[in-house]
């Protein structure tokens, strides 16, 4: 597989699975205007142009190479034209590494107070003040070009995986028409554009959507409509359809909304390159920190006398400098530092986990390393992978 250079994004597969092997895991390198993203990679979510509780130096120290920002939120507040006047998203949030903006479609469906979707676009009421707005493929491109991320995403119509077939089919066909309109509307030469596959859990719709989106000149392929209310087996089956069809496609594959280490590992094994989720940072703010093999609940009284760091071999500030007892105390006292330290740790853990995955693939030892990586990921708790629902809450700080 050779490198694809299609303007603002080029993707090179550095280590690919041997045909007939049990895994589709691959190691790649995505080069974007603001830097290089080694894949498989996890993108922390900066909903309002900030990863909650962290500053850009914190993100760099956690080894984040790309962050996601939400088009819907930034369009409503502070407004894309204001951000453009202030130097675009990179200047505005003082982050000089790559950024990806989502299409806004997911938040329209999950977050707006009400919505009315027709073939032309989506009319919705802001969850902030009830004001009425309209997003179309064309306006989504205008907003994302003004925000100026390295990667924009075609406007799509997501639905929950468990939706009735007729609902999924309707949204999938609309997503295809909107994909073509997004491509026509997108003009910014220094910004890549990724397209979104839908199709829910229906194998024939997944196949149709994969073929359709892969047939368009996008720079990358997003796999949408998963990381919602499907079971892990349903997700595996849907991914099998998609990645099977994309086997010879040289573009990066991005599964939107997946965030628990166990889920990330399973999807990498199936051949996914990119991920994003609010999960590591959201659960951190509830006092849940991820450690090898499981997690700690910082609200638990048993930690109040524990002088050990959160995780002995972690390089993050929380682990280098403080004890479990201290961070648990901060949570009890609802001190602001608690949220920063826990978020810093969970993102460091997640990004370190992805680095271990990349190393195993690069060394040709991914399959042999799977048991160890699974043990490190631990078991995700019930509800932990319900990222679609949790993101829909608007992620209050
Ligand atoms: Zn740590």
Layout of secondary structure:
Layout: E1 4-6, E2 9-15, E3 27-32, E4 35-39, E5 41-46, H1 56-61, E6 67-69, H2 71-76, H3 80-85, H4 88-93, E7 99-101, H5 105-110, E8 114-117, E9 122-125, E10 132-135, H6 137-147, E11 151-153, H7 165-185, E12 192-197, H8 203-214, E13 220-223, H9 232-245, E14 253-256, H10 261-269, E15 274-277, H11 279-284, E16 288-291, E17 294-297, H12 317-321, H13 324-332, H14 336-362, H15 366-377, H16 387-391
Parallel strand pairs: 5-6, 5-15, 6-7, 11-12, 12-13, 13-14, 14-15
Antiparallel strand pairs: 1-2, 2-3, 3-4, 8-9, 9-10, 16-17
Helix pairs in contact: 6-7, 7-8, 8-9, 10-14, 10-15, 13-14, 14-15
The structure holds zinc ion (ZN).
Zinc ion is lined by residues 310-311, 314, 316, 318-319, 345, 348.
Index terms:
397 residues; alpha/beta; eight-stranded parallel β-sheet; four-stranded antiparallel β-sheet; 41% helix; globular; binds zinc ion
What's the short story on this structure?
This protein has 397 residues and is α/β, with parallel strands linked by helices. It contains 16 helices and 17 strands.
Can you walk me through this structure?
- By secondary structure, the chain is of the alpha/beta class.
- Helix content is 41%, strand content 19%.
- It is built from 16 helices and 17 strands.
- The strands form four sheets. Strands 7-6-5-15-14-13-12-11 form an eight-stranded parallel beta sheet. Strands 1-2-3-4 form a four-stranded antiparallel beta sheet. A three-stranded antiparallel beta sheet has the order 8-9-10.
- Strand 9 and strand 10 form a beta hairpin.
- Helix 7 packs parallel to helix 8 and helix 13 crosses helix 14.
- The radius of gyration is 20 Å and the shape is globular.
- The N and C termini lie far apart (43 Å).
- The C terminus is likely disordered.
- Zinc ion binds next to helix 12 and helix 14.
């Amino acid at each position: 597989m050779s490198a694809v250079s299609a303007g603002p994004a080029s993707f090179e597969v550095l280590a690919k699975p041997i045909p007939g092997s049990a895994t589709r895991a691959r190691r790649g390198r995505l080069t974007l205007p603001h830097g290089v993203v080694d894949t498989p990679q996890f993108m922390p979510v900066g909903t309002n142009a900030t990863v909650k509780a962290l500053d850009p130096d914190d993100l760099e120290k956690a080894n984040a190479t790309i962050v996601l920002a939400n088009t819907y939120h930034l369009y409503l507040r502070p407004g894309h034209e204001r951000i453009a006047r202030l130097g675009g998203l990179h200047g505005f949030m003082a982050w000089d590494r790559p950024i990806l903006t989502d299409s806004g479609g997911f938040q329209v469906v999950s977050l707006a107070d009400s919505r009315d979707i027709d073939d032309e676009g989506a009319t919705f009421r802001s969850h902030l003040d009830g004001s009425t707005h309209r997003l179309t493929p064309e306006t989504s491109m205008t907003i994302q070009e003004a925000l100026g991320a390295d990667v924009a995403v075609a406007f799509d119509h997501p639905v929950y995986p468990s939706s009735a077939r007729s609902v999924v089919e309707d949204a999938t066909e609309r997503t295809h028409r909107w994909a073509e309109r997004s491509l026509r509307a997108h003009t910014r030469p220094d910004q890549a554009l990724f397209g979104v596959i839908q199709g829910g859990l229906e194998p024939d719709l997944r196949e149709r959507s994969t073929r359709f989106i892969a047939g368009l000149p996008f720079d990358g392929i997003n796999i949408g409509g998963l990381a919602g209310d499907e079971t892990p087996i349903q997700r595996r089956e849907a991914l099998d359809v998609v990645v099977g069809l994309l086997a010879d496609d040289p573009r990066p594959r991005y599964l939107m909304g997946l965030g628990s280490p166990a889920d990330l590992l399973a999807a990498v094994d199936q051949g996914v390159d990119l991920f994003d989720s609010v999960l590591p940072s959201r659960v951190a703010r509830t006092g849940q920190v991820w450690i090898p093999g499981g997690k700690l609940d910082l609200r638990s009284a048993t930690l109040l006398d524990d002088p050990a760091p959160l995780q002995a071999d972690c390089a993050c500030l929380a682990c280098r400098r403080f004890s479990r007892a201290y961070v648990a105390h901060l949570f009890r006292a609802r001190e602001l530092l608690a949220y920063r330290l826990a978020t810093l740790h969970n993102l460091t853990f997640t990004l370190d986990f992805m680095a271990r995955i990349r190393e195993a693939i690069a060394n040709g030892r991914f399959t042999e390393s799977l048991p160890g990586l699974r043990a490190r990921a631990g078991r995700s708790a019930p509800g932990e992978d319900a990222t679609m629902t949790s993101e829909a809450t608007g992620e209050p700080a």
